[in-house]
Amino acid sequence: MSGPSPGRQQSRLFLTSPALACGAEVDLLLEQIADGRGADLDAHQRLCVHCQAAITEFTAIWKPVAELASMPVPAPPSLTDAVMSHIRVLVRDV
Amino acid sequence: MTQPEALEGRIADALAAGDLAAAATEGIRGYGRELLRYLGSLLGDEDAAGDAFAETCAKIWRGLADFRSDSSFRTWLYQIVTRRALNKLHRGRNTGSLNLLAENPDPGPEPAAAAERNFAADAVTDALAALPFPQRAAVVLHHFEGLSYADVADVTHSSVPAVRSQLFRARRTLGTKLQQWR
Hints:
The complex is a heterodimer. Chain A is an all-alpha fold. Helices cover about 65% and strands about 0% of the residues of chain A.
């Protein structure tokens, strides 16, 4: 039988619920992971299977966002000319 | 002193000396790339981002004399850029996708891995483009450009709790979309 795996179904549930079964707030967990603090587990998270499963899943989901954010930004070659033409007009007007 | 602090220091020195050209040059050279990426993410179109960036540089030049150092120069630049992006969006909504990774000329030694990253980048940029403007701005400013919640609030003329709330909603939406992609 095809369909989402139990883990995937569970994480869909995480994302639509305000809190995990243990009471941990989903938004705070997402914030922790998105801010790169996914490995900084507090005392509860170190012992909680719900938190650990959610952190693992959210970390994987957020990974492409973090990768894109860390990529260098290419500048189109024509951009300098466009900027300079705007500046030249201004300098002429000064 | 960190690199951003050194840059802010050079800009402040140039402004204090009345050398507006040097201040503008430092600002555009130091922050140009991240501003361009921010515009691309907000506008979802490379050409529109380039146009907006060029117009913004002109606006920076014109507005330098009015700059007040109660915020960082970087925050001030983002305020100008955000207003410019909003104006452009109001003139004609653009929902296209800007794939920043696809512009990278060097895919590296592992083409399969690079292709996978490009698919992921497409998924992220499409998901970002679908977010409401305030959420998109907050995500890009905080998660891509590293601005603090307080600085994002400054740029968007908002409050820290409001920024946090926008980010909470944005992360859930992005998470749901990216989960479907996986």
